Fold each of these.
Amino acid sequence: MKPTGRVALAALALLSNACSKSEAAVELRAPSRVEFSAVSSVLELRCGGLDCHGGPARSLRVFGVYGLRWDGRDVPGGRDTTPEEVEASYQSLISIDPERLSRVSADAGRGAETWLPLSKGRGREAHEGGTRLVPGSAADQCVLSWLSGKVDFDACASDDFGPEPRAGEDW
Amino acid sequence: MRAVVLTLLMAWGCSEPVHEREVEELGPESPGVAEGPLHRAGQPCGTCHGELGPARRAFSLSGTVYHAGSGDEPEPKLTVRVLDTKGAQLRLTTNDAGSFFLPADEYAPAYPLWIKLERGEQTVEMHSAISRETSCAGCHGRVPTPDKVGQVYFEMPGTTAGGVP
């Protein structure tokens, strides 16, 4: 057989294999939707600005008062984040790296640091927005606890993301 | 012939059609306003004053502050305070068009940035951080929409302050 013939045969075999059978549906697990509201508040402020994940051009979209609005009648900076926006952010977040999220979720949060959104948020891998979830911080604890299946509401509520002037300087 | 084709391909490959369209959409200069610090108030300065040009100098931060939430009246001689994530602070002053800008070769921001407008005792603080955008108008449109805040403004004492979320 000529080399070109072998290539064509191999390609045909690959194609037929790819099209011949569909894989069985795999059920993936995701952390709690009910308790996500507390996590959403943290993500909205830290990640959901209009020039980051609060913009429509991102794979991960964080909806809310500081960024993208779900309802076309709302504007950024307007009324507070709505339940529909929390739901939309949740759906967007759990769709990122879902297989790993499922494993993390099934294993009570073990290996959470490798899940793409957390890995990027912690600055563990390239992230245009830098480190937004400093390991050990309240925001980090909030997200980790959600991934482990038991949200630390105190950590979520105590997150304080804002300007930090140097000692002795006013702001 | 081959060299000509290669040159054409290279020229084609180096164009940035999205950026070119963004520049084009800004339209011509306003009549009576010369190209310079007072031109194109309210527009996203960074579109032209970015690494892709066509302006010669890139800005790392720029914008226009208006007197009120609607209308064209600028807010000149206003202090724009900037605080970066390392705690470094800057104070800029808006010009007669209400605009301010920082050349990129003079200031490389450590994001996120926090912004505060200040005149005397009155201040208006932006509640969310800037994470990468170099132009206020990248997020602030003249009219609020679901993905844009309205224009940046600073109302005088006695009124409700706040033009930024």
Note: Residues 96 and 117 of chain A are 7 Å apart (CA to CA).
Amino acid sequence: MQLTHEEVIQLIQFNADKAVRGIKAKMLYEHLKDCVRCSAYASQFKEMENVLQSVMRKQWNQRPAPLSIVALKATKKMRKNNSTLLITRTALIGMSILAFIMLGWQIAFTNTNNRGSVTYPGMLPVPTPSTQYTATTNTTALHCEEIIYKVQETDTLEGIAFHHATTKEIIMELNNMSTESIKAFTELLVPICNSTPTSTTYPPTFTNTPIHEPITYTPG
Amino acid sequence: MKVFTPTGVKQIGRMNNVESAWLINECIAGNEDAIELFVRQYETDVFRLALSIVGDQAEANEITQETFLSALKSFRLYQEKNSLRAWLYTIALNHSRSHLRKQKILERLRTAVTTVFQLEERHKQRSPEDVFIQDEKEAAIWNELNKLDERHRTVVVLRYFHDLSISEISEILAVNEGTIHSRLHTARERLKRSLENLHGE
């Protein structure tokens, strides 16, 4: 059986890695004896290997700086310390970050508590009397009273509210109404609020007119 | 350096399996003389492996120290079915590669910074140490060797500089022998071609 040139080239490669044995090795040897082309390849191949080895030796046949065992042991100890140091460092950093987060949380939390009222999105927060402005300015004070209104036959809740510059919700709340239906000739408490200009210093004192002394009012 | 081994006094040469096992046990036990022996036995080889990967002597020395440190730490993990040399070489190779990676990252960072700030690029090429090569053939081969990508270059270096067998290389790189063969074939073809191109053939 004859070897083809391609096979020979393959074998030359494998032979370089000492992976050709027995019959194949013999056949390779025989082929190279007669084939000029393949022997040329083989010799070029061999030359490449030689140059390769020689250049690598020139570059890398250095001697190392001899390791001192003492230094090795010292580094070993230092490395150990370094690893514990790293752990403590990361632990500290982690804990301080956690502390910051909790602190921030607390601050945000207490802020919402101070508001004292539920804020819906879009609504401006209503300041409670305790956090009112403390300035001396010409402002208007809201002075509210509750009056008793006798419902007429043609009245609607909305109409009453509109007439008194209030809202039906306020009236309903004031009178503990569960529905919007009103009965003629019944009485409703209606808040009347006047804004009167004052130049008082704040905090203002809200005067809630006592409910048990209503001013009877009948529309003219 | 003479040493007392289970098989009698001997000079340091290639150790057989019995001697390796004894040496390892002594090292694990913390026997300083054994550790010294172990280091002396292999430090040149480890150093040369590191040097062939990173190209810089100072780094190679560093890597050698790191390698022995790792080896001493993880001796217990060493399984005796593998050859001691191959195991040590694997550790050395891993350290060398991580050094190379750090270098690459630093390089990328440097290029990034210089491009962002439009600083003048210092043409500091990280080229392997160039001993003055007179022979043009050697220059051609050396050039081509450094142009090879890491996987091909490593097999060539392990095979031709460290004289390792295919099975040892396969063990060190954790890659099967067929792959080693094919990588060697490709690399050698390129190296051979570089020589031929010299003479304009």
Note: The helical segments of chain A are 5-16, 22-34, 36-60, 69-115, 157-163, 168-174.
